[in-house]
Amino acid sequence: MDSPTAAEVTDVVKVYGRGDTAVRALNHVSVNFLAQRFTAIMGPSGSGKSTLMHCLAGLDAVDSGRVRIGRHDVTGLSDAALTRLRRNHVGFVFQSFNLLPTLTAEENILLGLRLAGRQPDRQWFDTVVDVLGLRARLGHKPGELSGGQQQRVACARALVGRPDVVFADEPTGNLDSRSGAEVLGFLRASVHEMGQTVVMVTHDPVAASYTDHGVLLADGRIAAHLQRPTADAVLSALANVGA
Ligand SMILES: Nc1ncnc2c1ncn2[C@@H]1O[C@H](COP(=O)(O)OP(=O)(O)OP(=O)(O)O)[C@@H](O)[C@H]1O
């Protein structure tokens, strides 16, 4: 049986600015992201990767078209409803970690659930913390952790609420290659062994090679789909779109 769709955009247009300076960042884009898959959004600089992720996550409004997360239609929701949807159904991992410096790792991991008034599932929390190797670091503040450890805390924070989808925006952009490989290996394991769904924006062919599926953007349109992309396949697909 095919996986259900975790997130989807249908015929989405997103224009920044007006008149002569208007930029059509997404030009009638339709794509669905299957549940329990690790998907990469790739493309040259300025091709619309971040815009697509922001529109998918309801962080940016579309000009036309529809956006869906799980069973929820994102288009047309009020800001309060969008905030609720994100808190309960979406996890985020950012390039710059975005942890609160005054909170411990454990408090950072659980903050989103606390804000949503949800009780953590302790067994799931323990699984995520142990798979990420964070047990001995839970009482540390971000300033006492390495970049790789901070990003693993951010991954735990994204997954602890069992979201419909985790959006990761260049999650290895600030990491050395060994820490980056650990984070990518964990994101892949969270999908293949823990049943989660991850959509990752990356310009790095090696990062994309950890995923099940790659969506290549060029000039605000879908230029190609790559199944089980290798780094070489990503490089040649990027070369084909002039990157
Ligand atoms: N807030 C904004 N105002 C005006 N133009 C914008 C804005 N955000 C993005 N753009 C433009 O929209 C287009 C797509 O940008 P986007 O950031 O989505 O690309 P990207 O593929 O993520 O690029 P990069 O890899 O460099 O981060 C670009 O031409 C960009 O300059």
TrEMBL record:
Superkingdom of origin: Bacteria
A Gene Ontology term for the protein's cellular component: plasma membrane
Alphabetical UniProt keywords: ATP-binding, Nucleotide-binding, Transport
InterPro entries reported for this sequence: AAA+_ATPase, ABC_transporter-like_ATP-bd, ABC_transpr_LolD-like, MacB-like_ATP-bd, P-loop_NTPase
CDD domains: ABC_MJ0796_LolCDE_FtsE
Domain ABC transporter: 7-238
Keyword ATP-binding appears in the UniProt entry: yes
A single MF term (Gene Ontology): ATP hydrolysis activity
PANTHER family: ABC TRANSPORTER RELATED, IMPORT ATP-BINDING PROTEIN
Entry protein name: Putative ABC transport system ATP-binding protein
Record lineage: Bacteria, Bacillati, Actinomycetota, Actinomycetes, Pseudonocardiales
